[in-house]
Design brief:
The complex is a heterodimer. By secondary structure, chain A is of the alpha/beta class. Chain A has two domains: 2-223, P-loop containing nucleotide triphosphate hydrolases (Rossmann fold); 228-297, THUMP domain-like (Alpha-Beta Plaits), CATH 3.30.70. Chain A has eleven helices and 14 strands. Chain A has helices at residues 41-48, 70-74, 92-102, 107-120, 136-148, 166-181, 193-199, 217-224, 242-250, 273-285, 300-307, and strands at residues 2-12, 15-26, 30-34, 56-61, 64-65, 77-80, 154-158, 185-189, 202-207, 210-216, 228-234, 255-261, 264-269, 290-296. In chain A, helix 3 (92-102) crosses helix 4 and helix 8 crosses helix 11. The model of chain A has no long low-confidence stretch (mean pLDDT 85). By secondary structure, chain B is mostly helical. Chain B has two domains: 21-254, no CATH class; 256-497, no CATH class. Helix content of chain B is 78%, strand content 0%. Chain B is built from 20 helices and no strands. Chain B has helices at 2-13, 22-33, 35-60, 69-102, 105-110, 116-147, 153-179, 184-215, 217-220, 224-252, 259-285, 291-309, 318-322, 328-337, 341-369, 374-408, 415-438, 444-447, 457-460, 467-495. In chain B, helix 4 (69-102) runs antiparallel to helix 8 and helix 12 runs antiparallel to helix 15 (341-369). The longest helix of chain B is centred in the last third of the chain and has 35 residues, at 374-408. Chain B is globular, with a radius of gyration of 27 Å. The model of chain B is unreliable at 372-376 (pLDDT under 50). Classes of the chains: A alpha/beta, B mainly alpha. Chains A and B meet through strand 1, strand 2, helix 2, strand 6 and helix 3 of A and helix 2, helix 5 and helix 13 of B.
Chain lengths: 313, 512
């Protein structure tokens, strides 16, 4: 299964919600979709899920166009919106059974599918509970179950972790990783960027309907922060050596911008990891009492803050 | 065609796997669990029980046997059943549909394989099952009345069948109102209006039921006239419910769908069937004026349709454009039935013209065959003239509003064109009255005087001979309005074709 978003454009009157965006991802991949509020994430996801029609461009789900064959495309995509199930007066089992029927599953096949999904999303124990009696985390599991009940190849999740407590977030993350192992292609939007870094293979950063960055997490991190920042901490009571350490570092090739940051020394390393290893060896040889030598990675949040301007349409 | 036949064949072959509409199952589960349905049902049974008990106790004091007691009790039960089912079930159905639409559950249904038609059908069937539940609960009491004499079984079943039909139609109206994209206060106003209207419907139904009860259905069953009349009434109710059904389907269809197709096709078919039915009645009763019933209903529908079609967007969605037939005759026909203001205007114009021509033809043929008294003839002529002029005005206002919207408010919603047409017509109708009021010359006589451009003045003008001035004025205005919109219309007709498939540029390098 391959999801290809091709030159997608969506206009609402004069507003261009999505402006000529293209990206693609494969089965077994979790693809993060990041952007400020009003960037066009939900619109793009709704187009992929066949709820909206693009003004121009197309989305191909394994070659099936969501514009030309929406009925066929619909059978391969599961959509989890940012709102939780609103039918309060039916049980978890009835809710899943209803959607299994709505997707055309019949007889024993439907019963099997519903039971399997209850097991997978760990809601079998609460299958007879009414939806209104569930916690937000449980409701999110049920929503995910609804989207998975007919075993779609593509899963589109709009802010699934919003409002969940840490435990529920961890559980959701584990579920998504399991689904990726089952060769599902997953597109997920979230504002909790640290979590996306941990589970996503690739990422798209979007703002004002346009793509700012796209690629694998490592590619994006490299592209946006090409240099490594290394932090050194000396043993407590040896901070008086900090100025000397900075001087020493500045004389070392492949080191730039050495400075003191709250009792630590930070510097930019232009070389690779073996260069870092050499520098560490050199500093130890010069009797600096180093207790910590670590590479500070630029995270997705830093990149997000760097590349976006916070603009909405 | 072959593909459709094959699909139908395979559908019939797999009858063992047929399942009920999922919406019906879900709604019924929710219905039987809800306190509103069970509570209302319990209350209904208690009222029936108390009423039966009351009747039996009071009649037990009579020394002579009351042979009409069954009929009296049945009348009372019909009133209770009509009130309970006409008030409660449509209200319950409407509130549920409106609540579901407000909570955006429709989006989730769009991504399933359920079509909007199946969704609305599911809601409707569920409401029909609830009606059946109430009727079934009432049945033992009704059967009991038959034992007490005074009412025959055919009457019981006939009245119940008709009541069932009307309640189902009321449910369909409630579903339609709930599907309207209106805010809660507006919907509340509609509910109030619906309740107000249901008083009238319940009153009429009860009066009809009592009349049938008095005369007895069993005795009339041998008369063909009875069946023809009943079938006509049932057909009209079903046709009305069907109209609200297709309108509801259109309302919940995604914006990119061809919403107009179902509605326009249904109205055209119903218009044709209604015309044939009216012709039958004209022939049967030898009364040419009956054709005016069909014409009046068509005109009312077309006025509403005109407002709706000019509110359509000019730009068709990709999905709709991809469905446009390639051959020219098919494309020309599709132009009338697909989304879009230009095609919609042609469709309304065609139906109105055919209705006028059809009506005129019937009247002429009848005049030729039978001599109709002069008074009746002049009444028909006046009615036809008024209708002709009213429609000329309606088209003039619609085209003027389209022109104003396109020239001065092109970036605003196309719905504004419909509103503009209403405002123009309403404003021009009120302007003379306001002027006369401030000039201190407002009187009935002055209002009934000639007011060119005032569409309402056509209907209440004092001197019918003045209608000719309205006709000339409306014709002149319409010619100008058509001229102003000709370029736009040509453009719309020219653009109404299937898009050429464009090869998209390659996708950006894959992420991984």
């Amino acid at each position: 299964m391959k999801v290809e978003v091709q030159n997608l454009r969506k206009e609402f009157g004069k507003t261009v919600a999505v402006n000529d965006i293209s990206f693609s991802f494969d089965a077994g991949h979790i693809f993060g979709f990041v952007g400020p509020n009003g960037a066009g994430k939900t619109t793009t996801m709704r187009i992929i899920s066949t709820i909206e029609e693009p003004t121009a461009g197309d989305v191909l789900l394994n070659g099936v166009s969501v514009c030309q064959e929406p009925e066929l495309a619909r059978r391969t995509v599961g959509y989890v919106p940012d709102s939780l199930p609103a039918h309060g007066d039916i049980t978890v089992h009835e809710y899943l059974d209803f959607y299994a029927r709505a997707y055309g599953l019949k007889g024993g096949k439907r019963t099997q599918a519903v039971e399997a999904i209850e097991e997978f999303t760990n809601v079998a124990g609460i299958r007879e509970k009414h939806l209104k009696a569930l916690s937000k985390g449980m409701k999110q599991r049920v929503t995910l179950g609804r989207a998975l009940v007919y075993d779609p190849d593509v899963l589109v999740l709009d802010e699934p972790a919003a409002g969940l407590d840490p435990r529920a977030r961890v559980e959701l993350r584990e579920l998504l990783m399991l689904l990726a192992e089952r060769r599902k292609a997953i597109l997920i939007s979230s504002h909790i960027l640290t979590e996306l870094t941990e589970i996503c293979n690739g990422i798209v950063i979007i703002e004002r309907g346009k793509i700012l960055e796209t690629g694998t997490i490592d590619e994006v991190l490299k592209k946006s922060a090409p240099r490594r920042t290394v932090a050194i901490r000396l043993l407590e009571g040896n901070h008086h050596q900090n100025p000397q350490l900075i001087r020493e570092l500045l004389q070392t090739p492949q080191v730039e911008n050495a400075r003191e940051v709250t009792n630590e020394i930070h510097f930019e390393l232009t070389g690779d990891e073996s260069a870092a290893c050499d520098i560490l060896g050199m500093l130890i040889a010069k009797k600096f009492k180093i207790i910590e030598f670590r590479q500070t990675k630029a995270n997705l949040e830093d990149i997000f803050m760097n590349v976006t301007k916070g603009g909405v349409q | 065609m072959n593909a459709q036949l094959f699909r139908l064949k395979s559908h019939l072959a797999g009858w063992r796997e047929w399942e009920m509409n999922p919406i019906v199952i879900k709604e019924l589960r929710q219905g039987v669990r809800s306190w509103s349905v069970t509570g209302m049902l319990m209350l209904f049974l208690v009222v029936l029980f108390v009423a039966s008990l009351g009747f039996l106790i009071t009649s037990s004091f009579d020394a002579t046997a009351n042979l009409g007691l069954g009929g009296t009790m049945f009348s009372c039960f019909v009133i209770i059943l009509a009130v309970a089912s006409m008030f409660f079930i449509p209200l319950y159905t409407g509130v549920r549909v409106a609540g579901e639409r407000a909570e955006n559950n429709m989006d989730l249904l769009y991504v399933t394989t359920l079509s909007p038609t199946r969704i609305i059908l599911g809601k409707f069937l569920c409401s029909a099952y609830i009606v059946l539940l109430f009727f079934s609960a009432c049945m033992p009491f009704m059967a009991f009345t038959n034992l007490l004499r005074g009412v025959d079984l055919p009457t019981v079943f006939f009245i119940l069948a008709f009541l069932f039909l009307f309640v189902c139609a009321a449910n369909m109206v409630a579903i339609f109102l709930a599907c309207l994209p209106l805010s809660r206060p507006f919907k509340f106003l509609f509910v109030l209006y619906g309740i107000f209207q249901s008083f009238f419907v319940i009153g009429s139904l009860v009066a009809l039921s009592l009349e049938l009860l008095r005369s007895g259905v069993g005795a009339k069953m041998a008369e063909p006239y009875f069946w023809v009349t009943s079938t006509t009434v049932a057909a009209v109710v079903v046709a009305g419910a069907g109209l609200f059904f297709v309108l509801s389907v259109a309302l919940i269809s995604p914006p990119s769908a061809n919403r107009a197709l179902g509605v326009r096709a249904y109205i055209t078919a119903a218009w044709l069937a209604g015309g044939l039915l009216t012709l039958y009645w004209v022939w049967r009763q030898s009364e040419a004026r009956l054709i005016m019933v069909w014409q009046t209903v068509t005109y009312i529908l077309m006025f509403c349709a005109l407002l709706n079609v000019i509110s359509n967007a000019d730009r068709l969605s990709l999905r709709v454009r991809r469905a446009i037939p390639q051959p020219a005759p098919g494309r020309a026909l599709a132009f009338f039935f697909f989304n879009g203001a230009a095609g919609g205007l042609c469709w309304v114009a065609a139906l109105v013209a055919l209705t006028l021509l059809g009506g005129n033809a019937v009247l002429e043929v009848k005049k030729w065959m039978v001599t109709v008294p002069g008074g009746a003839d002049s009444g028909i002529d006046l009615f036809l003239s008024e209708m002709r002029i009213t429609f000329l005005y309606a088209f003039s206002y619609a085209l003027t509003a389209l022109f104003i919207h396109r020239k001065f408010l092109p970036t605003r919603s196309p719905k504004l064109a419909g509103l503009l047409a209403l405002l123009l017509a309403g404003g021009w109708a009120m302007a003379p009255g306001i002027f006369l009021f401030f000039a201190n010359r407002l009187s009935r006589k002055s209002i009934e005087g000639l007011q060119l451009g005032n569409v309402f003045n056509v209907l209440y003008t004092r001197d019918p001979s003045e209608l000719v001035w309205h006709l000339y004025f409306a014709l002149g205005w319409l010619v100008i309005a058509i001229f102003l919109n000709l370029g736009w219309f040509r453009q719309q007709a020219g653009q109404f074709r299937r898009p050429t498939e464009i090869t998209l540029p390659p996708v950006l390098p894959p992420a991984s």
